[in-house]
Amino acid sequence: MSATTIGELVREARSRAGLSMRALAALVEVSQPFLSQVENGRANPSLATLYRLADALGVPASALLPEAVSAGDVLQVGADGGRMIPVSAEPGSASGRMLTIGAGHPLEVVEYRVAPGESLGGWFSGPGEQTLFVIEGSVTVELDDGRSFSLKPGGAVTHPSSVPHRWVPGPLGCRLLLSVAHGQTAAHGSPQSSRDQP
């Protein structure tokens, strides 16, 4: 029987990694009772926690999400489809809509619709190489080396996901599309695993 919930997928990946629940909770910096609730389907992790879980388990975040219904090698997500996952557990946090879901996808695609005043969380990093594209509004992408990029509609920035970064939405909110490529050497160097990813 294949796993059909985030919790079942986390439990299976934890078992394959040979980690106890307590050890995984410590690596991800969540409580063991919370991780138990996730594995038993009584709680869902935020995107930040999902990426930390994936990093600790050595799998892409999409491997911890149930497969979407597909027709062979084609995956279709309708305008109202895709799993909505909050960026963080903090009040006023935006949500991301997962457009590619399930293990085996070398590309993660997430849409963010950020209302005025909503947050996109703190600093993040993870495996792969990412491109952030602005559909509406504006966002500033800040890298931990002090560089920042102000983006308006039609603008994009690409960098190794391993570079710690954060996104600061403009005052009127924004709509963003994030693509993260996994399993290949990034054009700007080899990404290294780190903490989490929005």
UniProtKB/TrEMBL annotation:
Signal peptide (residue range): none
Keywords: DNA-binding
Membrane listed as a keyword: no
PROSITE patterns registered for this protein in UniProt: HTH_CROC1 (PS50943)
Highest taxon, organism lineage: Bacteria
Any Pfam family hit: Cupin_2
Domain HTH cro/C1-type, residue spans: 10-64
Protein's recorded name: Cupin domain-containing protein
Organism: Herbiconiux moechotypicola
Organism placement in taxonomy: Bacteria, Bacillati, Actinomycetota, Actinomycetes, Micrococcales
